[in-house]
Amino acid sequence: MTIDSQLAVEARSVEKRYGSQVALAGVDLTLKRGEALGLLGPNGAGKTTLIRILSTIARQDSGSVRVLGLDPAVGAVAIRSRIGVVPQELALYDGLTARENLNFFARMHGVGESAVSERVDWALASAGLTERANDRVVTYSGGMQRRLNIVASLLHEPELVFLDEPTVGIDPHSRNHVYEMVERLHASGVAIVYTTHQLGEVERLCDRIVILDRGRAVAGGTLSELQRRVPATGRRKLRVIADERFVEAREALTKAGIEAEIEEELPDLEAVFLTLTGRALRDGEI
Amino acid sequence: MIRAAFTVARKDLALFLRDRTALLLTFALPVVLAMIFGAALGSMGGAEGMGRVVVLVEDLDGSTQSRALVAEIAKSSGIEVKATTGARARVADGKAVAALLIPNGYETDLNSGREARLVLYRDAARTVEQQVVAGSLAPILMKLAGKQIGRSMMRKSLAAIGMDEKVGVELEKTMGDSFADGGDLMSSMPKALGLEIEDVTGTDDPAQKNAGKAHAVAGIAVMMLLFSLTAAGSTILDEEQQGTLQRLRLTPTASRALLLGKAIFTICVGLLQLVVLFAFGAIVFGLPVHKTLLALLVLSFAVASAATGLGLWLAVTCRSRKQLEGLSTLIILAMSALGGSWFPLMITPAWYQKLGHFTLNAWAMDGYHAILWYGKGLDGIVVEIGVLLAIALMLTLFALRGWNRRFEVTT
Question: By Cβ atoms counted within 10 A, which residue in A160, A281, B140, B143 is the most buried?
Answer without folding.
Answer: A160
